[in-house]
Design a protein that fits this description.
alpha/beta; ten-stranded mixed beta sheet
Length: about 475
């Protein structure tokens, strides 16, 4: 294996000749790296520029408004054991009974789509997305229905896409299911793969299993609906080999009944005691199985091949690292990683307050409301705060420009929920993934470039298909 050095400031990777053990070459390498860092210093801004509301307003006009997310209720009829609202996540908000009313939804839609109309002066093909989120959003279906009808009546020229993330239980209703299908809503159902894995964590309030009922709903209402997908969560008790077999045999991608798998997520490990329940043996088995599938991914990739499940489980993170930004500046917003800007998404809580995004569950992070819009002073304070936290904790880290740490890792205004062990694990994983990438590139140099091109082509074709379908 060739030895490489990762240059933190610029994000580039250089081959080290010094691994040959020749003292003179090793000294030359050290001088070369030092000179290169100095030469490229101008491309990396280490200090955060002074921000002002005018700069932020211009940023949002050109780059923001990626999505409107309406958290239409805090309520949920499930009690999933890994939910961020559960007792395992003491720093986050808990379950509630609050529901968004239609007036709040209309105001949020107006704010977002008027902004989209302004943005279309600069970005002609801008695609607006409105997502419904919870809790379990279908517990407030009336507001969802009215929001969709209001949007299609008042903003028919904008070709808005609607999505919903649901546990699926309320879809056992002809009126609700037919409405979502008639309006071409993208439905994302939480389904944790094979029945034992799903039922282990995804329970109703009375602790009942949910897999069999969910399968019956899919078969009854959505067997021929193309815009339904599944989202899968895993932890150390998940049998990854069984999960792989399950989707390879049952996913629609392989001519099965299960809605196509869109995402595989490891349960959130920030600010939680959730992982204390697992034994060392369970963790070891999980890692072993992951390595087995990773080896299969590498074997396929070295021959220029791939399969969609391993692309989700393993390939997406490799591509993120392979396609990482290089020679980047902070643009005055962040002195380190690629953390997105608060307000990129317009995330609306049931009472009309704006949060940072659906992944940030700490109460203090409010950045405006449906009546007054985005509060630039709050966002400037948040940016300065996250920069300070990251600089104190991360500035000496080799991954400070490559790590995915962001506001979702905050457990309070002034604290990141990242432990030393977590950081070391991230560093190890990054170095390992760099080795995997290099191993594949030595055998198939264009593999990752081809995957990136395929993703772009698939996204274009999906958009084209949606237009042909009139969605």
């Amino acid at each position: 294996m060739v030895d490489y050095e990762y240059i933190t400031d610029t994000g580039i990777l250089l081959e080290k000749v010094g691994c040959l053990g020749i003292k003179e070459v090793d000294e030359y390498n050290k001088r070369y790296f030092a000179n290169l860092k100095n030469a490229l210093e101008k491309y990396h801004v280490k200090n955060t520029a002074m921000l002002n509301p005018q700069e932020l307003d211009r940023y949002y006009e050109l780059h923001g408004l990626t999505e409107l997310i309406l958290k239409v209720t805090d309520s949920c009829n499930f009690r999933c054991k890994y939910c961020v609202y559960s007792e395992h996540y003491p720093h986050s908000v808990g379950y509630g009974k609050e529901k968004m009313d239609e007036d709040t939804a209309y105001k949020a839609i107006d704010y977002y789509l008027r902004g989209i109309r302004k943005q279309k002066k600069y970005i002609f093909d801008k695609k607006p997305y409105i997502a419904f989120y919870g809790g379990e959003p279908l517990l407030n279906f009336d507001v969802i229905r009215r929001a969709i009808e209001y949007t299609q009546t008042n903003y028919s020229d904008l070709d808005v896409e609607f999505t919903i993330t649901t546990n699926g239980s309320a879809l056992d209703n002809t009126y609700i299911s037919d409405f979502l299908k008639e309006h071409n809503v993208i439905i994302c159902i939480s389904l944790d793969g094979y029945s034992e894995n799903h039922d282990r964590n995804r329970k109703t309030q009375d602790n009942s299993d949910t897999y069999v009922k969910l399968m019956a709903i899919i078969k009854k209402y959505f067997i021929n609906y193309p815009r339904i997908y599944s989202l899968c969560c895993i932890d150390y008790k998940t049998d990854l080999l069984e999960l792989y077999r399950y989707y390879m045999e049952n996913d629609r991608m392989n001519c099965g009944m299960i809605p196509h798998l869109l995402r595989i997520s490891l349960i959130n490990d920030v600010g939680t005691d959730y992982y204390k329940q697992f034994s060392s043996a369970e963790k070891y088995t999980f890692i072993n199985q992951f390595q087995t599938l990773e080896n299969k991914y590498i074997e396929l990739a070295c021959k220029g091949n791939h399969d969609w499940f391993l692309d989700l489980l393993i390939g997406q993170e490799l591509i993120r690292i392979y396609d990482r930004p290089k020679f980047i500046t902070s643009n005055g917003y962040y002195c380190m990683n690629g953390c997105c800007l608060p307000g990129d998404k317009v995330y609306v809580l049931p009472d009309g307050r704006f949060g940072i995004c659906e992944k940030v569950t700490v109460k203090e992070f409010d950045i405006g409301n449906v009546n007054t819009g985005i509060n630039y002073d709050e966002i400037i304070a948040l940016i300065n705060n996250i920069n300070t936290l990251m600089y104190e904790k991360c500035s000496k880290c080799e991954l400070f420009t490559a790590c995915s740490i962001c506001y979702s890792h905050c457990i309070s205004w002034d604290k990141l929920g990242i432990s030393t062990d977590t950081c070391e694990h991230r560093k190890y994983n990054f170095r390992h993934k760099i080795e995997v990438i290099q191993k594949i590139l030595q055998k198939c140099p264009e593999f990752f470039n081809d995957r990136i091109k395929e993703s772009a082509t698939a996204a274009f074709q999906l958009n084209l298909m949606n237009k042909k379908l009139g969605t």
